[in-house]
Design a protein that fits this description.
heterodimer; A: about 220 residues; alpha+beta; B: about 475 residues; seven-stranded antiparallel β-sheet; five-stranded antiparallel β-sheet; 10 helices; 28 strands; about 25% helix; globular
Chain lengths: ~220, ~475
């Protein structure tokens, strides 16, 4: 493909088709080439695969369900944005929450009201049936913070902090859960497990369930009133 | 082809200048080996002028580059670019401007009935806003006829029109009144860029296997049959209980209200004691709908007491006089007349206006229509937002009297535009209000004495209730003084 810088000089009459004429006409073509390049690149800004890195926040804002996790590289985020339709299909589902948290290296389980007896209202009983809990396992980088100092962060609910769980990651977890949960479902807690077994053995949820291990709740939903 | 470009978006968004294009051209002309002494050229030299003139022409074309870059990105695209982007990428469309529809009442003193076709009557408000009748009707002799009138001009202007009302072309023995302001469709300006952008983003939610908050918001804004411009939706998930979703709806200027004629209502016969809504185009539950019933012959309904049966329950709606305008809260309307109230040969007319909330609920809630979009077992409640009236009292200080009239005339629009930006259940900060007022030419200071939150020592913010939108009342208490 020729450029305008090469094309414009072809219009010169023979008496002007010399070095000076070619440079003169070519300079005009340079401006046209710059506009063509600019227009081409401008279009590419809206295409996920070709957009420059500084366009990714805009492409992401147009796909807010593709949530960028803390520290996610541009390449990884770009690849995720390209899957926006796949992720959109998961909105309103347990699997959407699990999948989005897995992108950040987190392993999560969704516990529904009919899977345990949290507060004396087990089963699919109105108006408690649409409640759920999110339990997130230690990705290997969390440790228990102390009540005072020791690197743990304190929340408003006077809980033990978790060293290694950044505010940014905590915000990400909450954002994922609230974005992907079905609107009618009430998220009761997001529980981050630091160590120990949070529920009996074998992932069996029983009526006499008792939380164990060391954990911190980073989100608490409204009680049913 | 599929690798990211190396030029930055920031560079592409930069507006080119004639100088930058001249520099580009001179850069080529001044390359080593070039015969042109570009460094010595002065702005008035012929070669420089020619280069500069060419750059000026190219500048118009180059100016499209930042437009193209921004036009393809949600959040940067504006105006027609955004309209196209929304339609193309999100199958989402900008709401056009909507004209106000309000109920006005024709009164006959001529002693003879009059029949009007749509558009026969043009009413003019005291502000000069014109409305024409949107439905036909017959005005009984010495009677009254409430009718819907639609503003000739689209936009929010019609909402603020008020009486006394006159008729553009006088009809002998007929006058026009508005005893109670009853807007059955709020007017709106064309949907703003911010609103359309948000609606595009919410579109993703509708693709989900479940229904998240964004999905409910989008459905609320795009329910078929709704002719009000629903641009603000508050989604309260798992509210009031788990398994339920509550929605509050508003236009850019007001809570949504009744809209669209789904009538007519038909009677099962003169002298028979029931009246049933038979035409129901969308099987909508009627929430906040308006039913207007008029007796065209004297002495009938005026002596009647009639009630409505909603979902098997009974609600007393009467007694009424010669005409009734009724708000009712449910579906399946049946009006029961007291025995003997109707007279054989009586002539009636009636119209039913379904509400925006009713149409939205029918679209979302899988109730009687079984066509709702919400998941099985989910209860959905749709309500109009509530207005939180703000009547500011304070003083706007000017540097001089020269800008007084401009500031006074600019304040109403400024307050209205601020109110539109506050979402349902949002927060109005005093700082925002002051900032916007200070941007008016010549304003040097602003103080408030009311509302208390904005006065000295106040919290500085008004947090709206979950269902509230900001509604600016009179700003007459805001003095403007040099």
């Amino acid at each position: 493909m020729t450029t305008y810088q090469q094309y414009f000089p072809t219009f010169l009459p023979p008496w002007l088709a010399n070095d000076a004429g070619n440079v003169w006409a070519g300079s005009f073509g340079t401006l046209a080439d710059g506009i063509v390049d600019g227009a081409t690149n401008a279009v590419k800004c809206s295409i996920i695969q070709t957009a420059p890195d500084d366009a990714l926040p805009y492409l992401g804002a147009a796909r807010p369900h593709v949530i960028r996790y803390p520290g996610e590289s541009a390449d990884s985020y770009r690849a995720a944005l390209a899957q926006a339709f796949d992720f959109a299909g998961l909105l309103g589902t347990d699997w959407g929450i699990i999948t989005m948290l897995a992108r950040a290296g987190l392993s999560a389980q969704i516990v529904r009201n009919n899977q345990w007896n949290a507060d004396g209202h087990p089963g699919n009983v109105d108006p408690y049936w649409a409640r759920f809990w999110v339990v997130i396992q230690n990705p290997g980088t969390w440790s228990a913070g102390s009540r005072w100092g020791g690197g743990g962060r304190w929340g408003s609910s006077f809980r033990f902090g978790i060293t290694g769980l950044s505010q940014e990651l905590e915000d990400y977890i909450i954002n994922v859960c609230l974005t992907y949960k079905a609107s009618h479902a009430r998220l009761m807690r997001i529980r981050c497990i630091v160590s120990g077994t949070p529920w009996g053995s074998g992932y069996t949820w029983g009526g006499s369930f008792t939380w164990g291990g060391v954990y911190a709740d980073i989100y608490t939903g409204r009680p049913v009133t | 082809m599929t690798t990211p470009i190396t030029v930055t978006l920031a560079d592409l968004l930069a507006t080119p200048t004639q100088q930058s294009l001249v520099a580009d051209a001179l850069g080529v002309l001044g390359l080593p080996g070039s015969p042109f002494p570009t460094a010595a050229w002065q702005p008035t030299d012929v070669p420089y002028v020619l280069v500069s003139a060419n750059a000026a022409g190219m500048l118009d074309v180059a100016g499209f580059v930042p437009q193209i870059a921004a036009g393809g990105l949600l959040g940067l695209a504006t105006g027609d670019w955004l309209t196209l982007l929304a339609a193309s990428n999100f199958e989402t469309y900008r709401n056009p401007a909507v004209s106000t529809i309000r109920m006005l009442t024709l009164v006959d003193t001529s002693g003879a009935p009059s029949t009007f076709a749509v558009g026969d009557v043009t009413a003019v408000s005291v502000q000069g806003v014109e409305f024409t009748n949107a439905s036909p009707g017959t005005l009984p002799a010495n009677g009254v006829l409430p009718m819907p009138f639609v503003a000739v001009v689209s936009g929010a202007t019609g909402d603020n029109a008020s009486g006394p009302w006159t008729m553009q072309t006088a009809i002998a023995g007929v006058s026009i009144t508005e005893s109670t302001v009853q807007i059955v469709r709020h007017g709106s300006n064309a949907e703003s860029d911010d609103s359309l952008t948000l609606k595009c983003v919410e579109r993703w939610g509708t693709l989900g296997a479940g229904a998240n908050d964004a999905a409910y918001a989008y459905w609320s804004k795009t329910a078929p049959g709704v002719t009000e411009s629903v641009t603000r939706v508050r989604v309260l998930g798992d509210t009031p209980l788990p398994g339920q979703v509550t929605l509050y709806l508003a236009t850019d200027t007001a809570p949504v209200t009744s809209v669209g004629t789904v009538g007519p209502v038909s009677f099962n016969g003169a002298g028979v004691a029931t009246l049933t809504v038979t035409a129901d185009a969308v099987a909508a539950p009627y929430v906040n709908g308006v039913l207007v019933v008029t007796a065209l012959t004297s002495g009938a309904i005026g002596a009647a007491t009639f009630s409505a049966s909603f979902d098997g329950g009974a609600t007393t709606l009467g007694p009424f006089t010669t005409a009734a305008s009724v708000d009712f809260p449910a579906q399946g309307v049946t009006l029961a007349f007291a025995g003997g109230a109707l007279v054989a040969g009586d002539v009636w007319q009636s119209q039913l206006y379904a509400s925006t909330t009713g149409l939205v609920q029918a679209y979302i809630y899988p109730g009687p229509s079984l066509q709702g979009k919400a998941p099985t077992c989910v209860d959905v409640f749709v309500y109009p937002a509530a207005a939180y009236p703000l009547t500011p009292v304070g003083t706007v200080y000017l540097a001089s009297a020269a800008t007084h009239s401009a500031v006074v005339s600019g304040l109403p629009g400024l307050f209205a535009s601020i109110a539109q930006t506050i979402p349902v259940g949002g927060t109005l900060y005093r700082a925002l209000l002051i900032q916007k007022i200070m941007e008016l030419p010549g304003v040097v200071n602003v103080t408030f004495t009311s509302p208390p939150a904005f006065a000295v020592g106040g919290s500085g913010q008004i947090t709206l209730g979950a269902n509230e939108i900001l509604s600016i009342g009179s700003i007459a208490g805001l003095a403007v003084t040099p």
